[in-house]
Amino acid sequence: MKNLNSIVALLALVIVMYSTSCKKWGDEPGGGTGGGTGGGPQACNIKGELFYPMCGTSALDNFWIKAENGKIYQPCANDVLNIAAEIYREGDQISFSVRNLKSGESCKDELILCPANTIPADYKVGLTCISRIASKELIADGYFRDYRKLDGCNWVFESLSGEKFEIAYIPKLYAIYANKRASIRYTLSSSGASICMVGSSIDIRAIRYYDVVGGCRPFITGKSPETKKTVSILKAWTEGSKLWLSLGYGGCSFEDEAICMYNEGTIYSSDPNIIHIKLGNLPEAQLCNAYFTKDICFDLGMLVKAGEYHNLILDGYSGGPIAVKF
After folding, report:
1. Is the dihedral of CA 219, 225, 230, 234 positive or negative?
2. Alpha carbon separation from 278 to 28, 112, 295 (Å, rounded)
Protein backbone atom coordinates (compact mmCIF):
# COMPACT_ATOMS: atom_id res chain seq x y z
CA MET A 1 0.00 0.00 0.00
CA LYS A 2 2.86 2.34 0.83
CA ASN A 3 4.35 1.77 -2.63
CA LEU A 4 0.95 2.41 -4.25
CA ASN A 5 0.59 5.75 -2.43
CA SER A 6 4.06 6.74 -3.61
CA ILE A 7 3.18 5.89 -7.21
CA VAL A 8 -0.06 7.94 -7.02
CA ALA A 9 1.80 10.93 -5.57
CA LEU A 10 4.44 10.69 -8.31
CA LEU A 11 1.77 10.58 -11.05
CA ALA A 12 0.08 13.66 -9.57
CA LEU A 13 3.37 15.54 -9.57
CA VAL A 14 4.00 14.62 -13.23
CA ILE A 15 0.50 15.85 -14.21
CA VAL A 16 1.05 19.20 -12.47
CA MET A 17 4.46 19.65 -14.10
CA TYR A 18 3.04 18.79 -17.54
CA SER A 19 0.11 21.18 -17.27
CA THR A 20 2.41 23.99 -16.11
CA SER A 21 4.90 23.41 -18.92
CA CYS A 22 2.10 23.56 -21.52
CA LYS A 23 0.93 27.01 -20.38
CA LYS A 24 3.16 29.27 -22.41
CA TRP A 25 3.51 33.02 -22.09
CA GLY A 26 2.37 34.72 -25.25
CA ASP A 27 -0.97 32.96 -25.77
CA GLU A 28 -2.72 36.21 -24.85
CA PRO A 29 -2.12 39.93 -25.65
CA GLY A 30 1.27 41.09 -24.47
CA GLY A 31 2.56 37.56 -24.00
CA GLY A 32 6.20 36.82 -24.57
CA THR A 33 7.17 40.49 -24.63
CA GLY A 34 5.18 42.25 -21.99
CA GLY A 35 3.29 42.28 -18.75
CA GLY A 36 -0.36 42.20 -17.85
CA THR A 37 -2.34 39.05 -17.33
CA GLY A 38 -1.18 36.54 -19.89
CA GLY A 39 2.04 38.46 -20.43
CA GLY A 40 4.28 37.39 -17.58
CA PRO A 41 4.93 38.94 -14.19
CA GLN A 42 6.90 41.99 -15.37
CA ALA A 43 5.18 45.32 -15.97
CA CYS A 44 5.78 48.03 -18.59
CA ASN A 45 8.21 45.98 -20.66
CA ILE A 46 6.60 46.15 -24.10
CA LYS A 47 7.99 49.01 -26.17
CA GLY A 48 5.94 50.94 -28.69
CA GLU A 49 4.81 54.26 -30.11
CA LEU A 50 1.61 56.26 -29.64
CA PHE A 51 -0.45 57.20 -32.68
CA TYR A 52 -3.92 58.42 -33.56
CA PRO A 53 -5.85 55.84 -35.62
CA MET A 54 -7.74 56.80 -38.75
CA CYS A 55 -10.94 55.67 -37.03
CA GLY A 56 -11.51 54.49 -33.47
CA THR A 57 -11.26 55.52 -29.82
CA SER A 58 -9.39 54.35 -26.75
CA ALA A 59 -9.16 54.82 -22.99
CA LEU A 60 -5.78 56.52 -23.48
CA ASP A 61 -6.89 59.93 -24.80
CA ASN A 62 -7.88 58.09 -28.02
CA PHE A 63 -4.29 56.99 -28.70
CA TRP A 64 -3.55 53.52 -30.00
CA ILE A 65 -0.15 51.86 -29.59
CA LYS A 66 2.06 50.30 -32.24
CA ALA A 67 4.44 47.84 -30.60
CA GLU A 68 7.99 47.21 -31.79
CA ASN A 69 6.87 43.94 -33.39
CA GLY A 70 4.32 45.81 -35.50
CA LYS A 71 1.25 44.68 -33.57
CA ILE A 72 -1.47 47.28 -32.95
CA TYR A 73 -2.99 47.62 -29.46
CA GLN A 74 -6.26 49.47 -28.78
CA PRO A 75 -6.53 50.27 -25.02
CA CYS A 76 -10.26 49.87 -24.29
CA ALA A 77 -9.80 50.00 -20.50
CA ASN A 78 -7.26 51.82 -18.35
CA ASP A 79 -5.99 50.75 -14.93
CA VAL A 80 -3.34 53.48 -14.68
CA LEU A 81 -4.46 55.89 -11.95
CA ASN A 82 -2.16 58.81 -12.79
CA ILE A 83 -2.77 58.81 -16.53
CA ALA A 84 -4.56 62.18 -16.35
CA ALA A 85 -1.43 63.80 -14.88
CA GLU A 86 0.60 62.96 -17.99
CA ILE A 87 0.44 64.77 -21.31
CA TYR A 88 1.09 62.42 -24.19
CA ARG A 89 1.70 63.37 -27.81
CA GLU A 90 1.52 61.40 -31.03
CA GLY A 91 4.91 59.85 -31.77
CA ASP A 92 5.89 59.46 -28.09
CA GLN A 93 8.04 56.36 -27.47
CA ILE A 94 6.63 54.41 -24.52
CA SER A 95 6.89 51.19 -22.58
CA PHE A 96 3.63 49.56 -21.54
CA SER A 97 1.85 46.40 -20.41
CA VAL A 98 -1.66 45.11 -20.97
CA ARG A 99 -4.28 42.60 -19.85
CA ASN A 100 -7.27 40.93 -21.46
CA LEU A 101 -10.57 42.80 -21.28
CA LYS A 102 -12.78 41.81 -18.38
CA SER A 103 -16.43 40.87 -18.62
CA GLY A 104 -18.46 43.96 -19.47
CA GLU A 105 -15.48 45.94 -20.81
CA SER A 106 -15.47 46.96 -24.46
CA CYS A 107 -14.25 49.71 -26.75
CA LYS A 108 -16.56 52.70 -27.09
CA ASP A 109 -16.27 52.67 -30.88
CA GLU A 110 -17.84 49.26 -31.48
CA LEU A 111 -20.78 50.91 -33.28
CA ILE A 112 -18.68 53.40 -35.29
CA LEU A 113 -18.74 52.69 -39.02
CA CYS A 114 -15.13 53.03 -40.15
CA PRO A 115 -13.87 53.22 -43.76
CA ALA A 116 -12.88 49.95 -45.40
CA ASN A 117 -9.21 50.98 -45.49
CA THR A 118 -9.02 51.52 -41.72
CA ILE A 119 -6.23 49.52 -40.06
CA PRO A 120 -7.83 47.33 -37.36
CA ALA A 121 -6.31 46.68 -33.96
CA ASP A 122 -4.61 43.33 -33.43
CA TYR A 123 -5.56 43.38 -29.75
CA LYS A 124 -8.31 45.13 -27.78
CA VAL A 125 -6.88 45.28 -24.27
CA GLY A 126 -6.83 46.89 -20.86
CA LEU A 127 -3.81 49.09 -20.13
CA THR A 128 -2.04 48.19 -16.87
CA CYS A 129 1.15 50.25 -17.14
CA ILE A 130 2.57 53.03 -19.31
CA SER A 131 5.79 55.02 -19.11
CA ARG A 132 7.22 57.55 -21.58
CA ILE A 133 10.66 56.65 -22.91
CA ALA A 134 11.13 59.66 -25.16
CA SER A 135 8.97 62.42 -26.55
CA LYS A 136 8.71 63.27 -30.20
CA GLU A 137 10.63 66.44 -31.06
CA LEU A 138 8.16 69.19 -31.94
CA ILE A 139 8.39 72.66 -33.50
CA ALA A 140 6.66 75.86 -32.42
CA ASP A 141 6.79 79.50 -33.49
CA GLY A 142 6.13 82.29 -31.02
CA TYR A 143 7.66 84.56 -28.40
CA PHE A 144 9.54 84.25 -25.11
CA ARG A 145 7.69 85.88 -22.22
CA ASP A 146 9.24 86.85 -18.88
CA TYR A 147 7.11 85.44 -16.04
CA ARG A 148 9.83 85.69 -13.37
CA LYS A 149 7.89 88.24 -11.34
CA LEU A 150 5.17 85.67 -10.69
CA ASP A 151 5.53 83.25 -7.80
CA GLY A 152 7.28 80.05 -8.87
CA CYS A 153 7.55 81.09 -12.53
CA ASN A 154 10.44 81.57 -14.93
CA TRP A 155 10.61 82.05 -18.69
CA VAL A 156 7.59 80.96 -20.75
CA PHE A 157 7.32 80.40 -24.48
CA GLU A 158 4.00 81.50 -25.99
CA SER A 159 3.17 80.02 -29.40
CA LEU A 160 1.39 81.93 -32.16
CA SER A 161 -1.77 79.95 -31.35
CA GLY A 162 -1.63 81.18 -27.72
CA GLU A 163 -0.44 77.92 -26.12
CA LYS A 164 2.04 78.50 -23.26
CA PHE A 165 5.03 76.32 -22.42
CA GLU A 166 7.09 76.49 -19.23
CA ILE A 167 10.78 76.08 -20.00
CA ALA A 168 12.33 73.37 -17.84
CA TYR A 169 15.59 73.09 -19.78
CA ILE A 170 17.45 75.18 -22.34
CA PRO A 171 20.99 74.51 -23.69
CA LYS A 172 23.59 76.94 -22.31
CA LEU A 173 24.62 78.12 -25.77
CA TYR A 174 21.26 79.89 -26.24
CA ALA A 175 20.23 83.24 -24.77
CA ILE A 176 16.60 84.16 -24.14
CA TYR A 177 15.33 87.48 -25.50
CA ALA A 178 11.98 88.69 -24.21
CA ASN A 179 9.23 89.36 -26.76
CA LYS A 180 11.45 88.48 -29.73
CA ARG A 181 9.94 86.10 -32.26
CA ALA A 182 11.60 82.69 -32.46
CA SER A 183 11.19 79.18 -33.75
CA ILE A 184 11.97 76.43 -31.24
CA ARG A 185 12.45 72.67 -31.35
CA TYR A 186 11.39 71.00 -28.11
CA THR A 187 10.29 67.84 -26.34
CA LEU A 188 7.92 67.45 -23.43
CA SER A 189 9.78 67.52 -20.13
CA SER A 190 9.77 64.70 -17.61
CA SER A 191 10.51 67.09 -14.73
CA GLY A 192 6.92 66.91 -13.47
CA ALA A 193 4.43 69.58 -12.43
CA SER A 194 5.62 73.10 -11.63
CA ILE A 195 4.52 75.75 -9.14
CA CYS A 196 3.84 78.23 -11.96
CA MET A 197 1.26 76.02 -13.70
CA VAL A 198 0.67 78.18 -16.78
CA GLY A 199 1.34 75.46 -19.36
CA SER A 200 3.12 72.25 -20.29
CA SER A 201 6.74 71.88 -19.19
CA ILE A 202 9.20 71.50 -22.09
CA ASP A 203 12.89 70.94 -22.77
CA ILE A 204 14.14 73.21 -25.55
CA ARG A 205 16.56 71.61 -28.00
CA ALA A 206 17.18 74.51 -30.39
CA ILE A 207 16.18 78.16 -30.89
CA ARG A 208 16.22 80.29 -34.02
CA TYR A 209 15.41 83.98 -33.73
CA TYR A 210 14.26 85.95 -36.73
CA ASP A 211 12.67 89.21 -37.79
CA VAL A 212 9.52 88.87 -39.86
CA VAL A 213 9.26 91.12 -42.94
CA GLY A 214 5.80 92.19 -44.12
CA GLY A 215 3.98 89.66 -41.98
CA CYS A 216 5.49 86.68 -43.86
CA ARG A 217 6.86 83.54 -42.25
CA PRO A 218 10.58 82.79 -42.06
CA PHE A 219 12.58 79.98 -43.64
CA ILE A 220 14.03 77.42 -41.24
CA THR A 221 17.46 76.06 -42.21
CA GLY A 222 17.66 72.26 -42.28
CA LYS A 223 15.84 69.17 -43.50
CA SER A 224 12.07 69.14 -43.08
CA PRO A 225 10.91 66.18 -40.95
CA GLU A 226 7.47 66.35 -42.59
CA THR A 227 6.07 63.09 -44.00
CA LYS A 228 2.35 63.94 -44.21
CA LYS A 229 0.75 64.75 -47.58
CA THR A 230 -2.39 66.41 -46.21
CA VAL A 231 -1.95 69.79 -47.96
CA SER A 232 -1.91 70.45 -51.73
CA ILE A 233 0.17 73.27 -53.20
CA LEU A 234 -2.21 74.75 -55.75
CA LYS A 235 -0.13 77.72 -56.86
CA ALA A 236 3.21 79.40 -56.07
CA TRP A 237 4.41 82.88 -57.06
CA THR A 238 6.69 85.69 -55.88
CA GLU A 239 6.06 89.36 -55.16
CA GLY A 240 9.28 91.21 -54.42
CA SER A 241 10.75 89.66 -51.28
CA LYS A 242 7.70 87.44 -50.66
CA LEU A 243 7.02 83.86 -51.74
CA TRP A 244 3.28 83.22 -51.87
CA LEU A 245 1.65 79.78 -51.77
CA SER A 246 -2.00 78.94 -52.34
CA LEU A 247 -2.70 75.81 -50.27
CA GLY A 248 -5.64 73.41 -50.36
CA TYR A 249 -6.77 71.17 -47.51
CA GLY A 250 -9.69 68.76 -47.10
CA GLY A 251 -11.00 68.27 -43.55
CA CYS A 252 -13.10 69.81 -40.81
CA SER A 253 -11.13 73.07 -40.49
CA PHE A 254 -7.83 74.36 -41.89
CA GLU A 255 -5.53 75.48 -39.07
CA ASP A 256 -2.47 76.82 -40.88
CA GLU A 257 -0.72 78.79 -38.10
CA ALA A 258 1.91 76.11 -37.49
CA ILE A 259 2.87 75.55 -41.14
CA CYS A 260 6.49 76.48 -41.78
CA MET A 261 9.02 76.32 -44.63
CA TYR A 262 12.45 74.67 -44.61
CA ASN A 263 15.48 75.70 -46.64
CA GLU A 264 17.00 72.26 -47.30
CA GLY A 265 20.08 73.48 -49.16
CA THR A 266 21.45 75.19 -52.27
CA ILE A 267 23.03 73.68 -55.40
CA TYR A 268 25.63 76.24 -56.49
CA SER A 269 26.89 74.28 -59.50
CA SER A 270 23.78 75.11 -61.53
CA ASP A 271 23.00 78.39 -63.28
CA PRO A 272 21.02 79.92 -61.73
CA ASN A 273 21.54 78.40 -58.28
CA ILE A 274 18.84 75.96 -57.15
CA ILE A 275 17.43 76.11 -53.62
CA HIS A 276 15.43 73.14 -52.38
CA ILE A 277 12.58 74.06 -50.02
CA LYS A 278 9.87 72.01 -48.30
CA LEU A 279 6.86 72.69 -46.10
CA GLY A 280 6.76 71.41 -42.53
CA ASN A 281 4.37 70.97 -39.61
CA LEU A 282 1.35 70.26 -41.83
CA PRO A 283 -2.02 69.56 -40.18
CA GLU A 284 -3.19 66.03 -39.47
CA ALA A 285 -5.77 64.33 -41.69
CA GLN A 286 -9.40 64.83 -40.64
CA LEU A 287 -12.50 62.76 -41.43
CA CYS A 288 -14.58 65.60 -42.93
CA ASN A 289 -15.49 66.39 -46.53
CA ALA A 290 -15.10 70.19 -46.42
CA TYR A 291 -12.36 71.76 -48.56
CA PHE A 292 -10.41 74.93 -47.75
CA THR A 293 -7.87 77.12 -49.55
CA LYS A 294 -5.55 79.67 -47.96
CA ASP A 295 -2.76 81.93 -49.23
CA ILE A 296 0.31 82.28 -46.99
CA CYS A 297 3.63 84.00 -47.61
CA PHE A 298 7.28 83.41 -46.68
CA ASP A 299 10.06 85.98 -46.34
CA LEU A 300 12.56 85.56 -49.19
CA GLY A 301 14.79 88.21 -47.59
CA MET A 302 16.00 85.48 -45.23
CA LEU A 303 16.85 83.23 -48.18
CA VAL A 304 18.43 85.37 -50.94
CA LYS A 305 19.95 88.83 -51.22
CA ALA A 306 18.64 91.68 -53.35
CA GLY A 307 19.88 91.40 -56.93
CA GLU A 308 20.44 87.62 -56.77
CA TYR A 309 18.69 85.21 -59.12
CA HIS A 310 17.66 81.72 -57.99
CA ASN A 311 15.31 78.89 -58.86
CA LEU A 312 13.31 77.42 -55.99
CA ILE A 313 12.40 73.73 -56.14
CA LEU A 314 9.41 73.30 -53.82
CA ASP A 315 8.81 69.71 -52.71
CA GLY A 316 5.30 68.57 -53.66
CA TYR A 317 4.70 71.39 -56.17
CA SER A 318 4.06 70.28 -59.75
CA GLY A 319 4.38 73.75 -61.30
CA GLY A 320 8.14 73.50 -61.87
CA PRO A 321 10.93 75.77 -60.57
CA ILE A 322 9.92 79.10 -59.02
CA ALA A 323 12.11 81.91 -60.35
CA VAL A 324 13.26 84.38 -57.70
CA LYS A 325 14.88 87.74 -58.47
CA PHE A 326 14.40 90.95 -56.49
Report:
1. positive
2. 45, 36, 16
pLDDT for res 67? 92
Please report whether residue 145 resides in a domain.
yes
What whole-number distance in Å separates Cα of residue 98 and Cα of residue 70?
16
What's the rounded Cα separation, in Å, for the pair 208 and 219?
10
Distance CA 287, CA 253 (A): 10
* 137: Cα separation from own chain's centroid: 8
Q: Are residues 159 and 95 in the same domain?
A: no
Q: What is the CATH number of the domain that holds 65?
A: 2.40.50.500
Q: Give the C-alpha separation, 177 to 213, whole Å.
A: 19
**CB-based contact 79:97 (threshold 8 Å):** no
d(CA 206, CA 171): 8
Q: What is the mean predicted confidence (pLDDT) over 88-115? A: 80
Rounded-to-integer distance, Cα 163 and Cα 282, Å: 18
Structural domain total, the chain: 3
Q: Do residues 263 and 277 touch, judged by C-beta distance below 8 A?
A: yes
Supply the range of the domain harboring residue 283. 219-325
What integer is the mean pLDDT of 86-112?
A: 80
- Based on the fold, state whether residues 174 and 238 are members of the same structural domain: no
pLDDT in tens, 105-153: 888 766 566 766 567 888 999 999 998 887 777 888 888 999 988 888 9
| Beta bridge partners of residue 77, listed in sequence order | 126
- DSSP states along 249-303: EEES----TT-EEEEEEEETTSSSEEEEEEEESPPPP-S--EEEEEEEEEEGGGT
Looking at the structure, do residues 188 and 243 belong to the same domain, yes or no?
no
CA distances from 160 to 163, 169, 205, 236, 262 (A): 7, 21, 19, 24, 18
Sheet bearing 290-299, strands edge to edge:
231-239, 242-251, 290-299
Assess whether 79 and 165 both reside in one domain.
no
Q: Exposed, middle or buried, 47 (CB in 10 Å: 0-12/13-18/19+)?
A: middle
Q: Are residues 157 and 128 part of one domain?
A: no
